[in-house]
Amino acid sequence: MTDKPTPQNVNKVVLAYSGGLDTSVILRWLQDTYQCEVVTFTADLGQGEEIEPARKKAEMLGVKEIYIEDLRETFVRDYVFPMFRANTVYEGTYLLGTSIARPLIAKRQIEIARETGADAVAHGATGKGNDQVRFELGYYGLNPDIKVISPWREWDLASRTNLISYAESHQIPVPKDKRGEAPFSVDANLLHISAEGKVLEDPNEEAPEYIYSRTVAPEDTPDTPTILEVAFEKGDAVAIDGEPLSPATLLTRLNEVAGANGVGRLDLVENRFVGMKSRGVYETPGGTALLAAHRGIESITLDREAMHLKDEIMPRYAKLIYNGFWFSPEREMMQALIDKSQERVNGTVRLKFYKGSVTVIGRASPDSLYSLEHVTFEDDDVYDQHDAEGFIKLNALRLRLSRRRES
User: Is 236 known to be catalytic?
Assistant: First the structure.
């Protein structure tokens, strides 16, 4: 097993670094506590904030090896799209925007550790949440011998006030809007933005409108609907209104259209892996539209039993991602099954956005299994309705035998 990290056995650590207050304090704390070299890694996953300022902060804190990477395309192509091939939702509603970002960050940290000769990795997740589990399962799933440092489980800086005091005593700049407690905690990437804590901790209190940043309130959206067409190839969206788009560009476009029409808001109380219930407010405008479109194209291209099997395994697949098991053998096995089902999921879906809703209003595919000849209510030459009698009687046989035994 991995040795417990100590100042004596850690020489270099790769820190998942946002440049914010928490991870800046963590950076300096690692330097002071472990007396080790720190490598910072900052990923642009489409969170909507400038990430280059993180470089200057890291340099100011004496970091020599600084990694800042635009991973938006990788994120959508290799993580979001594979997840959406399964129509993945956790507990019926949550589109896993935070969960799906963690394995990519963990993977790059492990790769950077290998590149730089680091023997440890660190993250800024707290000891109460799911992210600590997701990061660390990712680390160990990729490098079973890596040392993992989780400052929130080690230090005595138990409050934001303590963090600010520590930052000020170590000449770490504290943004003015961080002086005092923030109204809520935010996580963002190209798929979603989430808010938790403080004003949202009472699940019976409606979330204030200022919580929302990616969606217009449905009552304030346009009075005329927006209609667009999404094209799919092998289960992945590839174009909007006939224009081929890269994965990240396509999701960005869906975010803009859906957000402007108030689509994608979710107020959820979820069951965390660590055991507690947590209330969060999520905005996933493009993802909500993508899910509707994908189910729309599957409805005419997937065999019935293939579709039903996918629907049966989806909750377990969603749970694996939520709990942090992206790099597990069972997730990879399920992914192979899901991807096999998508080989003929090709075609186009028309979506209507209006007042907070997204609706499928049309679907077409060269691989469609929909047969108008068979389903028409008019005369046809392909379906003998008399065949249904034997079909029904065979399926009813066990029911009839069971009822006769009871009579």
Answer: no
Among this protein's residues, is 328 annotated catalytic? no
Output the DSSP codes for 154-176: T-S--SHHHHHHHHHHTT----G
Determine the residue type at 60: M
Report domain 12-71+100-182's class.
alpha beta
Q: How far apart are CA 223 and CA 149, in angstroms?
A: 52
| Res. 197 pLDDT band, cuts 50 70 90 | confident
Q: What is the mean pLDDT of residues 356-362?
A: 98
What's the pLDDT score for residue 399? 95
Dist CA 364 CA 329 (whole Å): 35
Task: Write down the pLDDT at residue 184.
Answer: 73
Beta bridge partners of 277: 271
Nearest CA-CA partner of 210 in 184, 180, 176, 188: 184
Cα atoms found within 13 Å of the Cα of residue 399, Cβ hemisphere only: 5
Question: 148: Cβ–Cβ under 8 A, 6 or more apart, which residues?
Answer: 2, 5, 120, 121, 122, 136, 139, 140
Per-residue pLDDT tens digits for 248-258:
999 999 999 99
CA trace torsion 86, 92, 94, 99 (10° rounding)? -60
H/E stretch holding 55 = helix 53-60
Catalytic residue among 28, 99, 108, 131: 131
pLDDT computed for residue 242 by the predictor: 98
Q: In what order do the strands lie in the sheet with 185-188?
A: 185-188, 193-196, 277-283, 265-271
Q: Do residues 167 and 25 touch, judged by C-beta distance below 8 A? A: yes
Domain locations in the chain? 12-71+100-182, 187-302+344-364
What does the block give as tokens for 366?
């060269």
Domain 187-302+344-364: CATH architecture, name and number where available: Alpha-Beta Complex (3.90)
**pTM to 2 decimal places:** 0.94
Q: How many CB atoms lie within 10 A of CB 79?
A: 25
Summarised one tens digit per residue, pLDDT across range 101-147 is: 999 999 999 999 999 999 999 999 988 889 999 999 999 999 999 99
Known catalytic residue at 102: yes
- 331 given a catalytic annotation: no
